[in-house]
Specification:
By secondary structure, the protein is of the alpha+beta class. It contains 15 helices and 15 strands.
Length: 459
């Protein structure tokens, strides 16, 4: 690692995309840029990059971008042409790479990202890379430096989450091959829920499986950790110590109950497939359904897992789309679209009610994620009927996606808070490796906590 290295790269690998962001290495990370490689595994995979600007419209640091219309070659030879540049109201400049990148899998996508870093940022600028690891199993919770031993154990944990863990470990291995001396840190999405009360962790199956690590883990932990810190910053310590329900509604969706700053319960379980229906995940199901489909249709375990992970949820019920915006646009003409939206909102409302019971009441309800931050219709439908808990929305602020959307007389404060998992990754990496105090030249005066690129989508 160069003595001049002053940037941390946060990598957030999903099942079909890789989000990334570059931060300065101060006590509070400052975002320099972010981006996403989308549709990995499909022929039209693309890469987008967003540069954070300071108040005068200049880059937050020396711009890593070539001029508009410039181009470069990925390792695999696909063109990465910067086609146009836009500056939006949040002082973020988006550079769209419209030509497809070659990303048949996460290893190839990692090559695209690493090539881009070397060509436009410079590997000598990197102090470390932080990875979101969805599942830490029973052993891993605290952020820590990735070692060969850890990677071996994460490979063995792949059956815990076969949709995420294999790709995430491949990403870390690809970075190690390219930059063998660069420190990498694993940040576990299960960490926030690691100390759930025992009654919330136990699964009602034979006790012997608990010794094998089979329990309720919970996910979206990086998002929830960020939200709780933001809630305290925005509303004060008393609000953050109160009875809080966090609703992370996006492509993956879950809710968490928090009291006195500690997790009490969460909707996802042993895997991220549990809980409320999601874009393509079923959420909770009668376990007897697996046996029924095995007998009735000869469906094996692999086929069942594929169905509940990729063919269910909003897509399965609507039979047309997993995108909330599409479904809302068609619900008046298509009963299947209407039922998909109704089911999603009903289940969200039901989990809020259940968590209010677990908490003994409700003081604050927070919406976040692509749907939670941007769909006023979904928020309104979820909250409708929760007046008995003290939830009353103000239609105007809700329609404007304001930070506080509850009515003046509402006993429960209802908030919309942008989440930033990449920010949390960067901060955990900086603290784990003791990188605070790095070069902050040219960066803005306050931590940049804008939503990650693509957060405006409602998938």
């Amino acid at each position: 690692m160069s003595s001049a290295a002053s940037r941390v790269l946060a990598v957030n690998g999903g099942s079909s995309s890789i989000k990334f962001a570059l931060f300065g290495t101060g006590e509070e990370p400052r975002r320099v840029l972010g981006g996403e490689i989308e549709r990995i595994g499909l022929p039209d995979a693309t890469m987008r990059v967003t540069e954070h600007l300071v108040g005068d419209g200049s880059p937050a640091s020396p711009s890593p971008f070539p001029p508009p219309q410039g181009g470069g070659k990925t390792k695999e030879g696909a063109e990465c042409c910067i086609a146009h540049t836009e500056v939006n109201s949040d002082a973020r400049r988006t550079h769209s790479l419209l030509n497809p990148v070659t990303a048949p899998d996460h290893t190839a996508a990692a090559g695209v990202l690493m090539d881009w870093v070397e060509q436009n940022v410079g590997s000598e600028e990197l102090a470390a890379v932080g990875h979101r690891i969805v599942h830490g199993g029973p052993r891993y919770s605290e952020p820590q430096r990735i070692t060969a031993e850890m990677l071996e154990e994460l490979h063995s944990l792949s059956p815990f989450d076969p949709e995420h863990l294999p790709e995430e470990t491949l990403l870390a291995e690809a970075f190690h091959r390219r930059f063998p001396d660069l420190p990498q840190v694993a940040c576990f999405d299960t960490a926030f829920h690691h100390d759930l009360p025992r009654v919330a962790r136990l699964l009602p199956i034979p006790r012997r499986y608990e010794a094998k690590g089979v329990r309720r883990y919970g996910f979206h932990g990086l998002s929830y950790a960020f939200l709780m810190e933001e809630l305290e910053r925005l509303a004060g310590r008393d609000a953050a110590q109160g009875r809080v329900v966090l609703a992370h509604l996006g492509n993956g969706a879950s809710l968490a109950a928090v009291h006195q700053g500690r997790p009490v319960d969460t909707s996802m379980g042993f895997t991220p497939t549990a809980g409320i229906p999601m874009s393509t995940r079923s959420g909770d199901l009668d376990p007897g359904l697996a046996w029924y489909l095995a007998r009735a249709e000869g469906m094996d375990a692999r086929q069942f897992n594929h169905m509940v992970s990729f063919e269910s949820g909003l897509l399965g019920v609507s039979e047309t789309s997993s995108d909330v915006r599409d479904l809302l646009g068609r619900e008046k003409q298509d009963v299947r679209a209407a039922e998909a939206i109704t089911l999603f909102c009903y289940q969200g409302k039901k989990w809020i009610g259940a968590f209010a019971a677990a908490l003994g009441g409700l003081d604050t309800l927070v919406f976040t994620g692509g749907i939670g931050e941007n769909s006023s219709v979904v928020r309104a439908r979820i909250c409708e009927g929760l007046e008995f808990l003290g939830v009353t929305l103000d239609a105007g602020p809700n329609a404007a996606n304001a930070g506080v959307i509850s009515a003046a007389g509402s006993r429960v404060a209802v908030r919309v808070i942008h989440t930033d998992e990449e920010y949390m990754i960067a901060r955990l990496v900086i603290r784990a490796l003791g990188l605070a105090g790095g070069d902050m030249t040219g960066l803005s005066d306050s931590p940049d906590r804008v939503p990650s690129p693509g957060a405006e989508r409602c998938e």
